[in-house]
Design a protein that fits this description.
Largest interface: A-C, 46 and 39 residues
Chains: A mainly alpha (about 100), B mainly alpha (about 140), C mainly alpha (about 475)
Number of strands of chain C: 2
Number of domains of chain A: 1
CATH architecture of chain A: Orthogonal Bundle
Strand content of chain A: under 5%
Largest sheet of chain C: 2 strands, antiparallel
Shape of chain C: globular
Structural class of chain C: mainly alpha
Strand content of chain C: under 5%
Oligomer: heterotrimer
Largest sheet of chain A: none
Number of domains of chain C: 1
Order of helices and strands of chain A: HHHH
Helix content of chain A: over 70%
Helix content of chain C: over 70%
Radius of gyration of chain A: 17 Å
Chain lengths: ~100, ~140, ~475
């Protein structure tokens, strides 16, 4: 029995849920786009933590391999997101998402 | 199906003895590590302040920049080129993750695995060729 | 399965087209490649092969949806030739669209949660870029950022749901999860271990994530803005291919995995479907911009398709497939006309279409057929789409929801007919010298023919499944 398994799975679930909720709150309440990106990353990392915990709990490596995929996709997403942000910064000179309200009727 | 059934049985059996000996003593090494880490930092900071001689003058405290007087704030948006290289680095860097599972199971996966990984890297090289030809890595 | 290889290869070829200076031939290459992709998926009919340790299953369900996607993509490439201008970066759009198509294909043929996640991301990431492909327009920028933020947020929920289900069942494989959840004795054992809480929250989290992707009310708020801000061809792609793929993924997940636990999610989807149909249709009535109106109408169509998922009987797959095909064809037609009109008007309002029938009968006719099909008027494809979905929902006993849906379509008839009446009224003649390229003419004719043919012979498609 390894170290991860010696802690009860509920603790991992709780920790991940709390991290995930902090991420969700960040996305909902922050106005700076970069901080919103960071909050999304926090959500994904909460998921990664939980995946690794479950993977160890079930003695099944599939969960850990899934974490690799999540990490790679998150990196690609961040690259695209930052590129979009740079494009917006060039046009408006700001990364505040409240600047972007042209499409609302 | 049998697989998942046995897994479930396994979890049910485990849920009792999963509460291992979580005594406070188990956390002693962690506490020690924290103390040593914090102590080292504090020690080094004090020692450098104490050992180093201090002679201040206006010229010495000036921001040094190749003999030219410093201008403006350092906290300005930096070159977009640097940003592009950084982003590309992140993308290419993180893909190395997939080589770890392959490397660990190198013998088991055999020739087939080798070919698949070769294909994966070939896709990468196509991407690398593309960004090179697009001039994303040119530093003006 | 070769379809996926062909599409990937096409994407790579498109990426390198500019460097090797054959971008003039790129459109023919892509169109031929898509035909090859369709042919190769037809050849796989009834084979039911699994690939990569049950990561993907290329069964008839996947094949039919792949064909719908590829045909839509074929029409899309023809309609949006202008979108791929001569400007250097614009040729990359081919590659982005083709990679997005690969993602859509994964979403219709996955049999493992990992592939579902990868498919959604491979589809979404190019779409974020494409939505912002009009780099200097602030509207396009805003659409791109909104789409990205909402997409990433939804992905977070979807992933958390997948993780919860993995925690409860110990596998990512759809079939194993489905078997585990269907057998009562396993459920008995597993209630003791406290797995149900994990499982139920997992199902609801995945539901939230997918509802963001299909833009079901109340997770729809990003859709009108993004649809309006993105360049019109990209909006057409989002409204057809992205939506079809997302629904195929949704249906496959819930049929193979969660059909045994209907009591957990059916009430939720009931409410979502009702809200989506009503809110989508009612809000569409108040829109002046045609693009925005089509955005709200696409939200309401998502509501109708949710009905089929709710019905969960042996007709629901066929009805979703038929509905997706009819809806995609009509939407492509409508967006082709819109993109042609938009050359004259920056943001085409309903008034910009006045007197179109006199100026350009072909455009007006194509738009009329599309609108009639979307409204669900009898001889056309859209009518049978709605008919099959409502029948399958009635068979499962959702009388009230079907009544709501019928009410919604009646509201829909109002705003679709408003467009048609505007076009045939003696307008002020604002629309002047419209140029239509040959390819766009072909697309218009094909969409008209398909809408009518699917309406006359609906059994052709339905009997396949």
């Amino acid at each position: 029995m390894n170290t991860i398994q010696s802690i009860h799975i509920n603790h991992y679930i709780l920790l991940s849920a709390v991290l995930f909720c902090i991420g969700v709150m960040g996305v909902l309440f922050r106005r700076n786009a970069i901080i919103i990106f960071m909050s999304v990353e926090l959500m994904l990392n909460a998921v990664n933590l939980l995946l690794v915990a479950f993977s160890s709990y079930w003695n099944d490596p599939a969960g850990q391999v899934f974490v690799f995929f999540v990490m790679v996709v998150a990196a690609a997403e961040v690259a695209v997101g930052l590129a979009i942000l740079v494009m917006i910064y060039r046009n408006t000179g700001s990364t505040d998402i409240d600047v972007l309200n042209k499409l609302k009727n | 199906m049998m697989q998942s059934f046995t897994n479930i049985m396994y979890v049910c059996q485990q849920s009792e003895f999963i509460f291992m000996q979580n005594t406070a003593l188990d956390y002693l090494p962690i506490v020690l590590t924290f103390i040593v880490a914090a102590g080292f930092v504090v020690l080094v900071m004090f020692v450098t302040h104490w050992l180093g001689p201090k002679r201040r003058s206006k010229i010495k405290d000036d921001v040094f920049e190749c003999g030219i007087e410093a201008q403006g704030n350092a906290r300005i948006p930096f070159s977009i080129k640097y940003f592009l290289v950084a982003i590309l680095f992140v993308l290419f860097d993180v893909e190395v993750i997939f080589m770890y599972p392959w490397a660990v199971n190198f013998k088991d996966l055999g020739v087939r695995g080798f070919i698949e990984m070769g294909l994966f890297i070939a896709f990468f090289l196509v991407g690398f060729y593309y960004i090179m030809k697009k001039g994303a890595l040119k530093w003006e | 399965m070769k379809t996926l290889y062909i599409l990937t290869a096409l994407g790579v070829i498109a990426m390198l087209a500019e460097l090797f200076r054959f971008k003039k031939f790129l459109l023919p290459i892509v169109l031929i490649g898509l035909m090859g992709a369709i042919a190769s998926s037809v050849r796989d009919w009834n084979t039911n092969i699994h690939y990569y340790n049950y990561m993907m299953t290329f069964d008839n369900y996947a094949i039919l949806f792949t064909i719908v996607l590829c045909v839509t993509a074929f029409l899309w490439f023809m309609m949006s030739k202008d979108f791929f201008g001569s400007e250097s970066s614009k040729t990359d759009h081919y590659a982005l669209v083709l990679f997005a198509l690969c993602g859509a294909m994964l979403m219709v043929s996955y049999s493992n949660m990992v592939m579902l996640f990868l498919g959604i991301e491979i589809l979404s990431i190019p779409m974020y870029v494409l939505a912002g492909s009009n780099k200097d327009s602030l509207a396009s920028n805003e659409a791109s950022l909104k789409y990205f933020l909402m997409g990433a947020f939804a992905t977070g929920f979807l992933l958390f749901g997948i993780t919860m289900i993995y925690g409860a069942t110990g596998t990512f494989d759809l079939r194993s999860i489905g078997i585990t959840l269907k057998s009562p004795e396993l459920i008995q054992v597993w209630r003791g271990a406290g797995g149900t809480t994990l499982l139920y929250s997992g199902i609801l989290m995945m539901l939230i994530g997918l509802c963001f992707k299909i833009s079901a009310v109340p997770f729809h708020f990003w859709a009108p803005d993004v649809y309006t801000g993105a360049p019109t061809p990209v909006t057409a792609f989002m409204a057809t291919i992205v939506k079809t793929a997302a629904f195929a993924a949704f249906l496959r997940l819930f049929i193979t995995c969660f059909s045994g636990l209907g009591n957990v999610w059916m009430n939720t989807i009931w409410v979502l479907a009702g809200l989506t149909i009503l809110l989508g249709n009612i809000t569409a009535v108040y829109q002046t911009s045609v693009k925005r109106m089509l955005a709200y109408s696409s939200i309401s169509h998502a509501g109708y398709m949710l009905l089929a998922i709710l019905a969960m009987n042996n007709h629901s797959v066929g009805s979703v497939l038929f509905y997706a095909a009819a809806y995609s064809v009509a939407t492509i037609g409508a967006f082709t006309v819109l993109s042609i009109i938009e050359k004259n008007f920056e943001l085409a309002s309903v008034d910009s279409f006045s007197g179109l029938a006199k100026k350009n009968p072909l455009l007006a006719f194509a738009m009329t057929i599309s609108m009639l099909s979307l409204a669900g008027i009898p001889p056309l494809a859209g009518f049978f789409g709605k008919y099959y979905i409502f029948t399958s929902a009635l068979q499962s006993g959702y009388v009230w929801l079907v009544l709501i849906a019928v009410l919604g379509s009646l509201i829909g008839v109002y705003y679709y007919f408003r467009m048609i009446i505007k076009m045939f009224s003696s307008g002020t003649g604002e629309v002047t010298n419209i140029e239509i390229s040959t390819l766009q003419k072909i697309v218009l004719v094909i969409t008209i023919l398909l809408s009518i043919l699917l309406g006359i012979f609906p059994d052709m498609v339905i009997s396949l499944l």
